[in-house]
Amino acid sequence: MSLVNFTNFDFDQLFAMSDDTNPLMMLIWILPIFFFVFYGQRIQLYVTSGEIKKGIKKLDGFRSESRDELINYVNKNLKPVDDPTAKINRFIDYFTIMPVEMDPNGIVDKVQHIVRSREDYTREHVRSLSPQMSDIELSKVQTLLEIASSLQMIYKIINHMYLTAKKQNNYPLILPLQMILPFIMEQSEAMKEAIPVFKKGQPVGDGIGPMVVGKMMLENQKETIAFQTSLVKSEFEGRKLFLVKADGPGSTVGRPADGLEKIVSENKIDAIIMIDAALKMEGEDSATVARGFGAAIGGIGTEKFQIEAIATSKNIPVFSIVVKQSVKEAITLMTKEIADTADDVRGQVNEMIRENTTQGQSIVIIGVGNTGGVP
Amino acid sequence: MFKKKKITLEYTIEKCSKCGTEVKRKYSDGDVLFSRCSKCTSCDGMMMIEKIFGETLEQ
Ligand SMILES: [Zn+2]
User: Fold this and answer.
1) Which of A58, A136, A282, B37 has the lowest tally of Cβ within 10 angstroms?
2) What ipTM describes this predicted complex?
3) What is the spatial distance between Cα A341 and Cα A260, in angstroms, rounded to a whole number?
4) Model pTM score
5) Chain B, window 2-41: residues with a beta carbon less than 8 angstroms from a chain A beta carbon
6) Residue A356, SS3?
7) In angstroms, what is the span from residue A219 Cα to ligand 1's centroid?
Protein backbone atom coordinates (compact mmCIF):
# COMPACT_ATOMS: atom_id res chain seq x y z
CA MET A 1 0.00 0.00 0.00
CA SER A 2 1.34 3.42 -0.86
CA LEU A 3 1.43 6.04 1.84
CA VAL A 4 -0.12 8.79 -0.21
CA ASN A 5 -2.58 8.36 -2.97
CA PHE A 6 -1.71 11.15 -5.41
CA THR A 7 -4.53 10.49 -7.79
CA ASN A 8 -7.34 10.54 -5.40
CA PHE A 9 -7.31 13.77 -3.41
CA ASP A 10 -10.56 14.79 -1.96
CA PHE A 11 -10.46 18.49 -2.76
CA ASP A 12 -13.73 19.12 -1.06
CA GLN A 13 -12.33 17.92 2.18
CA LEU A 14 -9.05 19.77 1.73
CA PHE A 15 -10.53 23.18 1.11
CA ALA A 16 -13.84 22.87 2.83
CA MET A 17 -14.53 25.53 5.41
CA SER A 18 -17.70 23.84 6.63
CA ASP A 19 -18.47 23.12 10.25
CA ASP A 20 -17.03 19.65 10.19
CA THR A 21 -13.48 20.95 9.46
CA ASN A 22 -11.00 19.97 12.06
CA PRO A 23 -10.18 23.11 14.13
CA LEU A 24 -6.57 22.04 14.36
CA MET A 25 -6.31 21.90 10.56
CA MET A 26 -7.82 25.34 10.40
CA LEU A 27 -5.19 26.71 12.74
CA ILE A 28 -2.45 25.14 10.64
CA TRP A 29 -3.88 26.87 7.59
CA ILE A 30 -4.41 30.25 9.06
CA LEU A 31 -1.35 30.69 11.25
CA PRO A 32 1.19 30.82 8.40
CA ILE A 33 -0.97 33.36 6.60
CA PHE A 34 -0.78 35.70 9.57
CA PHE A 35 2.86 34.89 9.99
CA PHE A 36 3.65 35.85 6.42
CA VAL A 37 1.50 38.94 6.50
CA PHE A 38 3.45 40.31 9.42
CA TYR A 39 6.90 38.84 8.89
CA GLY A 40 7.04 38.19 5.12
CA GLN A 41 9.02 41.30 4.35
CA ARG A 42 11.48 40.57 7.09
CA ILE A 43 12.02 37.03 5.84
CA GLN A 44 12.57 38.34 2.33
CA LEU A 45 15.01 40.88 3.74
CA TYR A 46 17.07 38.14 5.34
CA VAL A 47 17.10 35.96 2.22
CA THR A 48 18.01 38.82 -0.08
CA SER A 49 20.56 40.39 2.20
CA GLY A 50 22.63 37.23 2.16
CA GLU A 51 23.07 37.61 -1.58
CA ILE A 52 23.77 41.31 -1.38
CA LYS A 53 26.28 40.79 1.41
CA LYS A 54 28.23 38.44 -0.85
CA GLY A 55 28.25 41.09 -3.58
CA ILE A 56 29.40 43.77 -1.18
CA LYS A 57 32.21 41.57 0.07
CA LYS A 58 33.35 41.13 -3.51
CA LEU A 59 33.16 44.89 -4.13
CA ASP A 60 35.19 45.51 -1.02
CA GLY A 61 37.82 43.13 -2.37
CA PHE A 62 37.86 44.89 -5.74
CA ARG A 63 38.38 48.32 -4.25
CA SER A 64 41.24 47.29 -1.98
CA GLU A 65 42.84 45.20 -4.74
CA SER A 66 42.69 48.07 -7.21
CA ARG A 67 44.20 50.44 -4.66
CA ASP A 68 47.00 48.02 -3.77
CA GLU A 69 47.76 47.43 -7.45
CA LEU A 70 47.99 51.15 -8.02
CA ILE A 71 50.30 51.70 -5.04
CA ASN A 72 52.47 48.75 -6.09
CA TYR A 73 52.68 50.04 -9.63
CA VAL A 74 53.74 53.49 -8.51
CA ASN A 75 56.29 52.09 -6.06
CA LYS A 76 57.74 49.63 -8.55
CA ASN A 77 57.84 51.64 -11.74
CA LEU A 78 58.00 55.29 -10.86
CA LYS A 79 60.47 55.56 -7.99
CA PRO A 80 58.36 58.04 -6.00
CA VAL A 81 60.09 60.64 -3.87
CA ASP A 82 58.35 59.45 -0.73
CA ASP A 83 55.76 56.84 0.21
CA PRO A 84 52.76 57.48 -2.04
CA THR A 85 50.21 55.49 0.03
CA ALA A 86 48.75 58.37 1.99
CA LYS A 87 48.56 60.60 -1.07
CA ILE A 88 46.90 57.92 -3.18
CA ASN A 89 44.42 57.14 -0.44
CA ARG A 90 43.50 60.78 -0.39
CA PHE A 91 43.10 61.00 -4.21
CA ILE A 92 40.86 57.96 -4.28
CA ASP A 93 38.39 59.65 -1.96
CA TYR A 94 38.18 62.85 -4.00
CA PHE A 95 34.62 63.63 -4.94
CA THR A 96 33.07 65.68 -7.70
CA ILE A 97 30.06 67.89 -7.13
CA MET A 98 28.10 68.48 -10.29
CA PRO A 99 26.79 72.03 -10.84
CA VAL A 100 23.22 73.19 -10.20
CA GLU A 101 20.84 72.22 -12.98
CA MET A 102 18.02 74.59 -12.02
CA ASP A 103 19.11 77.12 -14.61
CA PRO A 104 20.28 74.93 -17.51
CA ASN A 105 21.64 77.81 -19.54
CA GLY A 106 25.37 77.19 -19.74
CA ILE A 107 25.31 73.94 -17.76
CA VAL A 108 27.60 72.15 -20.25
CA ASP A 109 30.35 74.72 -19.76
CA LYS A 110 30.04 74.37 -16.01
CA VAL A 111 30.22 70.57 -16.12
CA GLN A 112 33.16 70.72 -18.48
CA HIS A 113 34.92 73.17 -16.25
CA ILE A 114 34.52 70.97 -13.17
CA VAL A 115 35.53 67.77 -14.94
CA ARG A 116 38.55 69.37 -16.57
CA SER A 117 39.68 71.00 -13.33
CA ARG A 118 39.45 67.62 -11.68
CA GLU A 119 41.55 66.07 -14.44
CA ASP A 120 44.11 68.86 -14.29
CA TYR A 121 44.29 68.61 -10.53
CA THR A 122 44.83 64.84 -10.48
CA ARG A 123 47.35 65.06 -13.31
CA GLU A 124 49.46 67.60 -11.44
CA HIS A 125 49.26 65.67 -8.21
CA VAL A 126 50.07 62.35 -9.83
CA ARG A 127 53.06 64.09 -11.39
CA SER A 128 54.14 65.28 -7.96
CA LEU A 129 54.46 61.64 -6.87
CA SER A 130 57.45 61.29 -9.13
CA PRO A 131 58.65 64.38 -11.02
CA GLN A 132 60.49 62.56 -13.82
CA MET A 133 57.45 60.52 -14.87
CA SER A 134 56.79 60.38 -18.64
CA ASP A 135 53.45 61.53 -20.02
CA ILE A 136 52.54 57.96 -20.97
CA GLU A 137 53.23 56.70 -17.45
CA LEU A 138 51.28 59.64 -16.13
CA SER A 139 48.20 58.78 -18.18
CA LYS A 140 48.47 55.15 -17.03
CA VAL A 141 48.56 56.10 -13.37
CA GLN A 142 45.72 58.54 -13.90
CA THR A 143 43.56 55.80 -15.46
CA LEU A 144 44.42 53.35 -12.66
CA LEU A 145 43.52 56.03 -10.15
CA GLU A 146 40.22 56.61 -11.94
CA ILE A 147 39.43 52.88 -11.71
CA ALA A 148 40.39 52.66 -8.04
CA SER A 149 38.30 55.67 -7.08
CA SER A 150 35.29 54.46 -9.10
CA LEU A 151 35.44 51.09 -7.35
CA GLN A 152 35.74 52.83 -4.01
CA MET A 153 32.70 55.00 -4.78
CA ILE A 154 30.62 52.01 -5.92
CA TYR A 155 31.46 50.06 -2.80
CA LYS A 156 30.57 52.98 -0.56
CA ILE A 157 27.20 53.66 -2.20
CA ILE A 158 26.10 50.02 -2.32
CA ASN A 159 27.26 49.40 1.24
CA HIS A 160 25.43 52.53 2.40
CA MET A 161 22.16 51.44 0.77
CA TYR A 162 22.48 47.98 2.24
CA LEU A 163 23.30 49.09 5.76
CA THR A 164 20.49 51.64 5.75
CA ALA A 165 17.94 49.05 4.63
CA LYS A 166 19.20 46.62 7.22
CA LYS A 167 19.22 49.15 10.03
CA GLN A 168 15.67 50.20 9.35
CA ASN A 169 14.46 46.68 8.50
CA ASN A 170 13.25 48.29 5.31
CA TYR A 171 12.59 45.70 2.61
CA PRO A 172 11.35 48.12 -0.09
CA LEU A 173 14.66 49.96 0.22
CA ILE A 174 16.63 46.81 -0.47
CA LEU A 175 14.62 45.96 -3.60
CA PRO A 176 16.25 48.49 -5.95
CA LEU A 177 19.62 47.41 -4.58
CA GLN A 178 18.85 43.80 -5.43
CA MET A 179 17.83 44.87 -8.93
CA ILE A 180 20.88 46.98 -9.75
CA LEU A 181 23.45 44.73 -8.07
CA PRO A 182 23.99 42.41 -11.08
CA PHE A 183 24.71 45.41 -13.33
CA ILE A 184 27.01 46.95 -10.74
CA MET A 185 28.87 43.66 -10.32
CA GLU A 186 29.32 43.31 -14.08
CA GLN A 187 30.76 46.81 -14.33
CA SER A 188 32.98 46.44 -11.29
CA GLU A 189 34.36 43.10 -12.44
CA ALA A 190 35.13 44.66 -15.82
CA MET A 191 36.92 47.55 -14.12
CA LYS A 192 38.96 45.17 -12.01
CA GLU A 193 39.97 43.19 -15.08
CA ALA A 194 40.91 46.38 -16.89
CA ILE A 195 43.75 47.09 -14.44
CA PRO A 196 46.42 44.75 -15.86
CA VAL A 197 45.57 45.83 -19.42
CA PHE A 198 46.11 49.52 -18.70
CA LYS A 199 49.24 48.68 -16.70
CA LYS A 200 50.78 46.89 -19.68
CA GLY A 201 49.64 49.61 -22.05
CA GLN A 202 47.66 47.27 -24.30
CA PRO A 203 44.77 48.42 -26.52
CA VAL A 204 41.25 48.03 -25.12
CA GLY A 205 38.02 47.41 -27.03
CA ASP A 206 37.10 51.09 -26.80
CA GLY A 207 40.33 51.78 -28.70
CA ILE A 208 38.98 50.50 -32.02
CA GLY A 209 38.22 54.04 -33.27
CA PRO A 210 41.72 55.37 -32.48
CA MET A 211 43.18 52.14 -33.93
CA VAL A 212 41.49 52.63 -37.31
CA VAL A 213 42.35 56.33 -37.49
CA GLY A 214 45.84 55.74 -36.05
CA LYS A 215 46.59 53.38 -38.93
CA MET A 216 45.37 55.96 -41.44
CA MET A 217 47.73 58.46 -39.79
CA LEU A 218 50.86 56.40 -40.41
CA GLU A 219 53.47 57.86 -42.72
CA ASN A 220 52.22 61.40 -42.16
CA GLN A 221 53.48 64.03 -39.76
CA LYS A 222 51.40 64.30 -36.59
CA GLU A 223 50.74 67.68 -35.04
CA THR A 224 49.07 68.60 -31.78
CA ILE A 225 45.68 70.19 -32.38
CA ALA A 226 44.31 70.27 -28.82
CA PHE A 227 45.27 69.01 -25.38
CA GLN A 228 46.32 65.33 -25.72
CA THR A 229 44.90 65.29 -29.24
CA SER A 230 46.73 64.84 -32.55
CA LEU A 231 45.92 65.82 -36.10
CA VAL A 232 47.21 64.46 -39.40
CA LYS A 233 46.39 66.03 -42.76
CA SER A 234 46.17 63.53 -45.57
CA GLU A 235 44.40 62.90 -48.85
CA PHE A 236 41.97 60.35 -50.21
CA GLU A 237 40.72 60.23 -53.81
CA GLY A 238 40.93 63.97 -54.31
CA ARG A 239 39.48 64.85 -50.89
CA LYS A 240 41.34 66.50 -48.06
CA LEU A 241 41.25 64.49 -44.83
CA PHE A 242 41.75 65.84 -41.32
CA LEU A 243 42.42 62.82 -39.12
CA VAL A 244 41.93 63.36 -35.39
CA LYS A 245 42.57 61.04 -32.45
CA ALA A 246 43.81 61.24 -28.88
CA ASP A 247 47.58 61.24 -28.40
CA GLY A 248 48.68 57.65 -28.08
CA PRO A 249 49.89 55.36 -26.78
CA GLY A 250 49.07 56.91 -23.42
CA SER A 251 45.68 56.10 -21.93
CA THR A 252 43.55 59.12 -22.76
CA VAL A 253 40.53 60.11 -24.81
CA GLY A 254 41.95 63.53 -25.65
CA ARG A 255 39.76 66.51 -26.51
CA PRO A 256 38.45 65.80 -30.00
CA ALA A 257 35.82 68.55 -29.80
CA ASP A 258 38.46 71.22 -29.16
CA GLY A 259 40.42 69.80 -32.09
CA LEU A 260 37.37 69.93 -34.33
CA GLU A 261 36.64 73.48 -33.29
CA LYS A 262 40.12 74.56 -34.32
CA ILE A 263 39.99 72.73 -37.66
CA VAL A 264 36.56 74.18 -38.49
CA SER A 265 37.68 77.70 -37.59
CA GLU A 266 40.54 77.51 -40.11
CA ASN A 267 39.05 75.34 -42.88
CA LYS A 268 35.79 74.77 -44.70
CA ILE A 269 34.65 71.29 -43.72
CA ASP A 270 32.02 69.36 -45.70
CA ALA A 271 31.53 66.27 -43.53
CA ILE A 272 32.49 64.80 -40.18
CA ILE A 273 32.91 61.06 -39.75
CA MET A 274 33.23 59.63 -36.24
CA ILE A 275 34.39 56.11 -35.42
CA ASP A 276 33.69 54.81 -31.94
CA ALA A 277 32.89 51.75 -29.87
CA ALA A 278 29.24 51.49 -28.81
CA LEU A 279 27.55 49.44 -26.15
CA LYS A 280 25.88 46.40 -27.64
CA MET A 281 22.47 45.38 -26.48
CA GLU A 282 22.05 42.09 -24.68
CA GLY A 283 21.61 39.41 -27.34
CA GLU A 284 23.35 41.45 -29.99
CA ASP A 285 26.56 40.01 -31.40
CA SER A 286 29.80 41.52 -30.26
CA ALA A 287 31.98 43.26 -32.86
CA THR A 288 29.21 44.04 -35.31
CA VAL A 289 29.77 47.21 -37.26
CA ALA A 290 26.90 49.67 -37.65
CA ARG A 291 26.57 53.00 -39.41
CA GLY A 292 24.41 55.98 -38.65
CA PHE A 293 23.98 59.71 -38.35
CA GLY A 294 24.95 61.94 -35.46
CA ALA A 295 27.92 62.24 -33.17
CA ALA A 296 29.11 58.87 -31.84
CA ILE A 297 30.93 59.77 -28.66
CA GLY A 298 30.39 58.63 -25.08
CA GLY A 299 31.48 60.14 -21.82
CA ILE A 300 29.54 62.64 -19.76
CA GLY A 301 28.21 64.42 -22.83
CA THR A 302 30.16 67.67 -22.90
CA GLU A 303 32.31 66.66 -25.89
CA LYS A 304 29.23 65.40 -27.72
CA PHE A 305 27.43 68.68 -27.06
CA GLN A 306 30.40 70.68 -28.32
CA ILE A 307 30.72 68.63 -31.52
CA GLU A 308 26.99 68.88 -32.21
CA ALA A 309 27.07 72.62 -31.65
CA ILE A 310 29.99 73.09 -34.07
CA ALA A 311 28.38 70.87 -36.71
CA THR A 312 25.05 72.65 -36.38
CA SER A 313 26.45 76.17 -36.53
CA LYS A 314 28.45 75.38 -39.68
CA ASN A 315 25.79 73.07 -41.13
CA ILE A 316 28.18 70.11 -41.45
CA PRO A 317 26.62 66.62 -41.63
CA VAL A 318 27.91 64.16 -39.01
CA PHE A 319 28.19 60.45 -39.87
CA SER A 320 29.18 57.68 -37.50
CA ILE A 321 30.50 54.15 -37.62
CA VAL A 322 30.36 52.13 -34.41
CA VAL A 323 31.69 48.75 -33.34
CA LYS A 324 29.33 47.10 -30.85
CA GLN A 325 30.73 45.57 -27.66
CA SER A 326 29.92 44.90 -24.02
CA VAL A 327 30.99 47.06 -21.08
CA LYS A 328 33.65 44.55 -20.25
CA GLU A 329 34.99 44.29 -23.78
CA ALA A 330 35.21 48.06 -24.01
CA ILE A 331 37.63 48.43 -21.12
CA THR A 332 39.59 45.18 -21.20
CA LEU A 333 42.13 43.86 -23.72
CA MET A 334 40.69 44.19 -27.24
CA THR A 335 39.17 40.89 -28.34
CA LYS A 336 40.16 39.22 -31.58
CA GLU A 337 36.70 39.83 -33.02
CA ILE A 338 36.92 43.57 -32.39
CA ALA A 339 40.48 43.82 -33.69
CA ASP A 340 39.40 41.96 -36.81
CA THR A 341 36.79 44.61 -37.63
CA ALA A 342 39.51 47.22 -38.18
CA ASP A 343 39.89 46.54 -41.91
CA ASP A 344 36.13 46.39 -42.42
CA VAL A 345 35.68 49.72 -40.61
CA ARG A 346 38.43 51.29 -42.70
CA GLY A 347 36.64 50.08 -45.84
CA GLN A 348 33.35 51.49 -44.64
CA VAL A 349 34.98 54.86 -43.89
CA ASN A 350 36.26 54.98 -47.47
CA GLU A 351 32.80 54.07 -48.75
CA MET A 352 31.21 56.78 -46.60
CA ILE A 353 33.65 59.35 -47.95
CA ARG A 354 32.84 58.38 -51.55
CA GLU A 355 29.08 58.36 -50.95
CA ASN A 356 28.79 61.63 -49.09
CA THR A 357 31.45 63.94 -50.51
CA THR A 358 32.86 64.92 -53.88
CA GLN A 359 36.39 65.61 -55.02
CA GLY A 360 37.90 68.77 -53.64
CA GLN A 361 35.90 68.64 -50.43
CA SER A 362 37.32 68.34 -46.89
CA ILE A 363 36.38 65.76 -44.27
CA VAL A 364 37.24 65.47 -40.58
CA ILE A 365 37.59 61.88 -39.40
CA ILE A 366 37.66 61.40 -35.63
CA GLY A 367 38.72 58.15 -33.96
CA VAL A 368 36.85 58.37 -30.65
CA GLY A 369 37.83 56.34 -27.60
CA ASN A 370 40.61 55.47 -25.23
CA THR A 371 43.85 55.45 -27.17
CA GLY A 372 45.80 53.39 -24.62
CA GLY A 373 48.30 51.23 -26.51
CA VAL A 374 47.41 52.85 -29.84
CA PRO A 375 50.04 55.32 -31.08
CA MET B 1 29.32 26.68 -8.52
CA PHE B 2 30.16 25.10 -11.86
CA LYS B 3 31.57 28.30 -13.26
CA LYS B 4 34.37 27.57 -15.69
CA LYS B 5 37.59 29.40 -15.14
CA LYS B 6 38.36 31.76 -17.99
CA ILE B 7 41.83 32.65 -19.12
CA THR B 8 42.80 35.24 -21.68
CA LEU B 9 45.69 34.55 -23.99
CA GLU B 10 47.37 37.61 -25.44
CA TYR B 11 48.47 37.64 -29.06
CA THR B 12 50.29 39.96 -31.42
CA ILE B 13 49.83 39.87 -35.18
CA GLU B 14 52.68 41.03 -37.38
CA LYS B 15 51.98 41.80 -41.00
CA CYS B 16 54.35 42.49 -43.85
CA SER B 17 53.46 45.78 -45.50
CA LYS B 18 54.87 44.59 -48.82
CA CYS B 19 53.58 41.05 -49.40
CA GLY B 20 50.92 40.82 -46.72
CA THR B 21 52.31 37.79 -44.87
CA GLU B 22 50.77 37.54 -41.40
CA VAL B 23 52.42 36.00 -38.37
CA LYS B 24 50.52 35.35 -35.15
CA ARG B 25 52.63 35.05 -32.02
CA LYS B 26 52.33 35.38 -28.26
CA TYR B 27 52.23 38.97 -27.03
CA SER B 28 55.46 40.04 -25.43
CA ASP B 29 55.89 43.01 -23.11
CA GLY B 30 56.69 46.18 -24.95
CA ASP B 31 54.79 45.34 -28.13
CA VAL B 32 53.23 48.51 -29.52
CA LEU B 33 50.73 48.71 -32.37
CA PHE B 34 52.06 49.84 -35.76
CA SER B 35 55.69 49.55 -34.73
CA ARG B 36 58.16 47.92 -37.10
CA CYS B 37 59.62 44.82 -35.56
CA SER B 38 61.40 42.34 -37.83
CA LYS B 39 62.31 41.46 -41.40
CA CYS B 40 59.73 39.56 -43.43
CA THR B 41 60.71 35.93 -44.02
CA SER B 42 59.31 35.72 -47.54
CA CYS B 43 60.37 39.05 -49.03
CA ASP B 44 62.61 41.98 -48.16
CA GLY B 45 59.82 44.00 -46.57
CA MET B 46 59.45 44.91 -42.91
CA MET B 47 56.93 43.38 -40.56
CA MET B 48 54.69 45.78 -38.63
CA ILE B 49 52.55 45.04 -35.58
CA GLU B 50 49.03 45.06 -37.01
CA LYS B 51 46.93 43.91 -34.07
CA ILE B 52 47.20 43.15 -30.37
CA PHE B 53 44.31 41.24 -28.91
CA GLY B 54 43.16 38.67 -26.39
CA GLU B 55 41.42 35.36 -26.93
CA THR B 56 39.46 33.96 -24.03
CA LEU B 57 39.44 30.25 -23.33
CA GLU B 58 37.24 28.39 -20.89
CA GLN B 59 38.95 25.79 -18.78
ZN1 LIG C 1 56.85 40.22 -46.98
Assistant:
1) A282
2) 0.92
3) 26
4) 0.88
5) 8, 10-11, 13, 27, 29, 32-35
6) helix
7) 18
